[in-house]
Write a structure and sequence with these properties.
- It is a single chain.
- This protein has about 475 residues and is α/β, with parallel strands linked by helices.
- The protein contains 16 helices and 19 strands.
- The strands form five sheets. A seven-stranded parallel beta sheet has the order 3-2-1-4-5-6-11, with helices on both faces. The chain has a six-stranded antiparallel beta sheet with strand order 14-19-18-17-16-15.
- Strand 16 and strand 17 form a beta hairpin.
- Helix 1 packs across helix 7, helix 8 crosses helix 12 and helix 14 crosses helix 16.
Length: about 475
């Protein structure tokens, strides 16, 4: 039977796949997150997208009206700071909204739990979230899973294999868990709609094998064809710095650190109750890895890259799944038409609006390695998909919303530069941001070296564009 479903955290890795799976089964889905642009562009049938900031969820009670099942896929690992307190506060905000506008069933995707004395901050935050949601006195299914093949924890391992010549993980590499394929997890999540809980029910999801993290590394290397010497070293996981993770992985470093600190102990699922409730064939780890790597090949063939054939042709398996990013957001009184007009002037009289000498210096670096760059821009004032501005190729044109250009200089990775504008009622918001998928360790080092220049340039670019647009607005 079709249900009306709200997915909180719909923009994440699991959330996007779950939203699509629910849509394919004919459910009416409200997909909610802080950023829903990518989901909107997928135009999934029976799916409406809603911007919700759970720190200040003023519109959440209205979204809960008439909802049968709420999926809670939210976590705060990427927030930094005291994410235990932050995650608990977000859960309390949702709990308060549920007390005002209850639903029939909550499904919360959580993590396998270690003994309380051995819990990491990440695992403790998951436990507090479950307790907080349960206090809404609504039937709650807490589905606990370990490593999900394809999710952030898996990506840390993937990046280590692709980016390091020798693997020297700390002693947690001997801990064991029960990794589960994304397809199996999604099947459980969807089928739980047909098996509502009566109270607070805890179910554990697992794949068919018990593997240590060292064995997972070995299996991944065998499947991917990347062979590395693996030498575990006996230092505590708390010594792993955010800076080090920023070097070896494209996963947001605060997220990676929180996940790694949760791997110190065996996390073994007992999935007998869940398998009896929802039988299915479980995918072995090697096959799950193959499917994930195959899916990642399609990553660049998406709306983020304007479905550009050149970007798709340049993609390599070693490119980071998660993009590095740097940019600046600025509030302005300028109108959207004025902002759009100015952004489309890039490469013309104003050059790149700020730090033109730095852009020229970057071009000279390409010349030194024998990579001659194109110069100039089209004569027509408004850029079109396929146009070139110096070494950049225009890949997305959404008037008064977004202009995106494919990076064409010589560097180890694939990148794009995006100009995004939003009408916020009493002001407009302009964001200038570079997105970078690094190619191995050289790509990560390149990004780290460029961050100071990026932060300086994009701040100046954004303010200069806004300044020019404000002048145009006043003249109208």
């Amino acid at each position: 039977m079709s249900q009306r479903i709200l997915v909180l955290g719909a923009s994440g890795y699991i959330g996007q796949h779950l939203t699509r799976a629910l849509s394919e089964r004919g459910h009416q889905v409200l997909a909610a997150a802080r950023s829903v642009e990518r989901l909107q562009k997928q135009n999934l049938p029976n799916v409406s997208c809603h911007v919700v900031d759970l720190n200040w969820p003023k519109n959440l009670p209205a979204l809960l009206e008439g909802i049968d099942t709420l999926y809670y896929l939210v976590h705060s690992m990427g927030e930094g700071g005291d994410f235990i307190a932050h995650e608990r506060q977000v859960a309390m905000n949702v709990r308060d909204a549920l007390l005002e506008t209850p639903v029939n069933h909550i499904i919360f995707l959580s993590s396998l739990q270690a003994p309380e004395s051995e819990q990491s901050d990440h695992l403790r935050a998951r436990q507090l979230t479950a307790e907080t949601l349960a206090s809404a006195n609504i039937p709650l299914t807490e589905l606990r899973a370990g490593i999900i093949v394809g999710s952030a924890a898996f990506e840390v391992m993937r990046d280590m294999v692709y980016n390091l010549p020798i693997l020297t993980p700390p002693r947690w590499v001997r801990s064991r868990t029960t990794p589960i394929a994304l397809e199996n997890l999604l099947h459980y999540l969807v089928e739980l709609l047909n098996h509502p809980a009566q109270g607070h029910r805890v179910l554990e999801a697992a794949g068919p094998e018990v593997l240590s993290y060292q064995e997972q590394f070995e299996h991944f290397m065998r499947v991917s064809g990347r062979h590395r010497l693996l030498i575990p070293i006996p230092f505590p996981t708390r010594w792993i710095s955010v800076w080090f993770l920023n070097v070896i992985t494209s996963v947001p470093p605060t997220t990676a650190k929180a996940l790694i600190q949760g791997l110190k102990h065996d996390l073994l699922a007992d999935d007998r109750e869940l398998r009896a409730l929802i039988p299915q064939d479980l995918i072995r780890f090697d096959d799950a890895v193959r499917r994930t790597l195959k899916e990642e090949e399609k990553l660049v063939n998406s709306s983020d890259w304007g479905y550009d054939a050149q970007a798709f042709a340049r993609w390599r398996p070693e490119y980071g799944y998660f993009a590095k990013q740097a940019g600046f957001t600025f509030k302005t009184e300028a109108s959207l038409p004025a902002l759009w007009e100015v952004v489309n002037e890039i490469g013309g009289k104003e050059g790149y609006f700020f730090g033109n000498i730095l852009w020229q210096t970057r071009g000279m670096m390409d010349l030194l390695v024998g990579h001659k760059l194109a110069k100039g821009r089209p004569s027509h004032p408004m850029l079109e998909v396929g146009d070139t501005v110096d070494s950049w190729k225009v890949i997305i044109v959404e008037p008064e919303k977004q202009l995106a250009m494919l990076f064409g200089m010589k560097a180890p990775g694939l990148g794009r530069l995006c100009f995004t504008m939003k009408d916020k009622g009493d002001h407009r918001e302009l964001d200038v941001r570079a997105w970078w998928h690094p190619h191995g360790m050289p790509g990560l080092f390149y990004w780290l070296l460029m961050i100071p220049a990026h932060l300086f340039i994009f701040r100046g670019m954004t303010k200069r564009i806004a300044q020019l647009a404000e002048k145009k607005t006043l003249r109208v």
